[in-house]
Design brief:
Length: about 290
């Protein structure tokens, strides 16, 4: 049997065990560094909520809070509260629990597909992805110029389930204040199932990758900065269209403000042909401790 690809391993995160009515569990290997990656828990809560819905309603609004760091070595229990089952809308709240304490909670609204009035903003005009370098290539070049071995900073060059091609390059090891925005072309390293629930869960999963980067860039810090603490506090996402995450899509992020040890970022996700497929926001801790 061939070894699973990184994408296949990521999709396995969405396979939850049903413990009891409206109670589900994840006992597999968690992803993250020191604490569970927020995108994992968000995607898993969405899947848990979907398991309690029997009608053709699809997530359109997801609002969540990160309450405690998730322990990488422990299982996660998900409890779903059936707040409302309506004709047009269905509402669920979900808690992710470890050791009897909530590490994450969210409210999710689902809606049947309807026709209605339409409007959307234009996609930013940026270079095409074929003209840009892969993020891993950029990072490897930085390490080579500074004569740093790859094994000394393994997470810096970690292969992901997506390929990312940033429009605006940054100097990771010598950060400076940059304009408070960031554009990145993204595509999956492999083909996703056409199942709308899986597509939404996957987009939610990867939306937590780099969303705070625009806020960090605006004040001249990044994850390699000494004495720097960065952690997600909340995450909200709206799904605007039926998803088909095949090929390139553009993740455009801006940060209106950073203050009071918090950075705020907004993200818009466009298909390559310019359709706005999802929007998200996030606040996170941005603390720079004294030596």
């Amino acid at each position: 049997m061939s070894e699973k690809t990184i994408l296949e391993k990521s999709l396995h995160l969405f396979v939850l065990e049903e413990v009891d009515r409206d109670i589900f569990c994840w006992t597999g290997k968690n992803v993250g560094y020191k604490r569970i990656f927020g995108g994992q828990v968000m995607a898993q809560t969405l899947i848990a909520a979907y398991k309690t819905i029997d009608v053709e309603h699809f997530a359109h609004s997801f609002h969540s809070y990160f309450l405690r760091p998730g322990d990488m070595n422990k299982s996660i229990t998900f409890t779903v509260d059936r707040i409302r089952d309506g004709k047009s809308f269905t509402t669920r709240t979900v808690k992710a629990i470890q050791d009897g304490e909530a590490i994450f909670n969210c409210s999710i609204s689902f809606q049947k597909r309807e026709k209605g009035l339409e409007h959307q903003i234009d996609m930013p005009i940026v270079p095409e992805p074929e003209s840009l370098k892969n993020e891993l290539e950029i990072r490897e070049e930085v390490l080579e110029k500074l004569n740093i071995k790859k094994e000394d900073i393994p997470l810096f060059i970690k292969q992901r389930e997506i390929e990312m091609r940033p429009v605006e390059e940054e100097n990771y090891l010598n950060p400076k204040r940059l304009p408070p925005y960031k554009n990145t072309w993204i595509r999956t390293e492999g083909e996703l199932p056409k199942d709308e629930k899986i597509q939404q869960a996957f987009l939610l999963y990867i939306s937590d990758m780099g969303l705070l980067a625009a806020a960090n860039n605006s004040v001249g810090v990044n994850f390699l900065t000494k004495n720097f603490q960065n952690a997600s506090l909340d995450h909200a996402m709206s799904f605007h269209r039926k998803l088909d995450l095949k090929g390139w899509f553009l993740y455009t992020i801006d940060s209106p403000i950073t203050r009071n040890a918090r950075g705020f970022s907004r993200g818009s996700i466009f298909s390559r042909d310019g359709k706005l497929i999802a929007s998200c926001t996030q606040e996170g801790l941005i603390r720079l401790w004294d030596n």
